[in-house]
Structures are given as C-alpha cells and as structure tokens.
Amino acid sequence: MYFASNIKFLRKRRDRTQDDVAVALNLKRSTLSGYENGVAQPGIDILISFSGYFNMSIDTLLKIDMTELSESQLGELERGYDAYVKGSNLRVLATTVDPGNRENIELVSEKAKAGYTTGYADPEYIGELPVFRLPFLSDKRKYRTFQLKGDSMLPIPDGSWVTGEFLQDWTQINNGKAYVVFTVNDGIVFKIIENNILKDGKLVLYSLNPLYEPYEVLISEVKEIWKFVNYISSEIPEPVMPEKQIFQSIAAMKNDLERIKAKLGKDISDVNEIN
Length: 275
Known about the structure:
The protein is α+β, with helices and mostly antiparallel strands. It has 3 domains: 3-68, 434 Repressor (Amino-terminal Domain), CATH 1.10.260.40; 105-232, Umud Fragment, subunit A (Ribbon), CATH 2.10.109.10; 242-275. The chain has helices at 3-13, 18-24, 29-37, 44-54, 58-63, 71-78, 83-86, 113-119, 123-128, 197-200, 243-274, and strands spanning 105-108, 131-132, 143-147, 161-166, 177-183, 187-196, 202-206, 215-218, 222-232. A 9-stranded mixed beta sheet has the order 2-1-3-4-9-5-6-7-8. Strand 7 (202-206) and strand 8 form a beta hairpin. Helix 2 packs across helix 3 (29-37). The radius of gyration is 29 Å and the shape is elongated. 18% of the residues are buried.
C-alpha cells in the first residue's frame, strides 16, 4: 500500500501545504499528517475525497508507487489517463530515464526498426536502445527519435533522424501536421496526417513527395503516434525552386525546343534541295 507516500508526494508536487489540503478536504491538519505518516488509516469516504482532489482512482493511490514513475508517466496520470479509470484507453509506454529521473530520448535506427515492431512495449528492449538529450526540449514531455528511410518525405533527406513527442490522446492529432506513426502492418512511417478517427476510425497518411499516393490506416492498427518536433541530418535538403525561376526555366526550355525545331526544319530543306 502506497497511500501515505503517494498523497504526500502529490501534495508536494503540486506545491500545496498540509493546511491547504486539509482545508480543501475538510480535515484537521493533524489528521492529514497522520495519513501521510502512515499512523492513521482513512475510511472509504476519505479515500473518495482524496481520489477526487488529486483526480486519480483509489486503486492508483493505493497500489502505484508514484515516486518510482517517470515524469511522462506522472504527466499521463495528471492529465487523466489513469489505467484504473481509463482501462484500455491508456497507452502504456516503455521508457528510460537518466540517473536524475529525467526522460531520455531513445534512438531507433533503421536497423533497430525491425526489433522495435515486437519490442516497443518491452522495457528491456527499450532499455538497450542508445539514448541522448536535447537541452532545448522540455523535461516534462516524452520524446523519441527515429531514423528516416527513403524519399517519401523529401525534401527531408533519406537517413535523417526525426524526433517526435509522444502523443497520448490521438483525437488531438492536427490535420496537415507531421507525425511518426507506428502501425501493425507498416511498421514505423513518417507522414502528414489527416485525422478521421471520429468520422470513420481511420487516419489518412500523406507523403511530402507527390510521387507517393496517400493511403488509409485503421486506428485499430496503430500502436504509437509521435508528434514531429524536429529532424537532424548531415545533408542539406535540395533547394525548392522559386516560382519565378520555374517560369524562367520553362521559357528557356521552350526557346531551346524552338531552336531545335528550326534547325531540324532547315536541315530537311537542305536535303530536299540536293535531291
């Protein structure tokens, strides 16, 4: 039972004094102190009050040692994604932290992708992935970096490292934004998304490269979604030609074609005169 340590941990995490919590729950400060020190046991009515105050289920307050959770896992609980409340709606993410209990950014290389499809939920597998940190990203969010393969997202070069923020609530996917999507059938892909979850339970995935056709995936096939944050590459993307330069290039090609046609016509006339 972790009730005593949990309510003390949550109180301090929210920067509340014992007086603050006691007043909110209509308790004496000494009674709250007894609960936090484990010298007094609350009844069911008191447990319900604490559950409502911290927005967490009674089972979570009793059975989960919150001091051992990572920042992203605590954040999920605080945003309402409680396993005992939401059930299967909670997407439990295997993750790693540094000695200071700060979230690592795990690297999933192209070679590691095959193993990720079966080991994504295995803490031991995730723990074997190389990790790094980006100091400009929040310590209170969960990030992971995946290596891009192919040319479907040009001008982002093949081999780039794409970092995404773990997305818990998929209904919050923004149309036209880029995400890393991990599906049962396609593995890890990096695409622009059209969110049709509420409409027909599907996502439409688009590539930046117009040579690739968009396609649909059932939300039931999706395991993880990571919102695009940035990418790292050793290559400079090919420049996008300005509109004026495109028109100039087309005009130059037309002029070249006219000169070729004119030359061909002159050559044919010369041949006819000889005959």
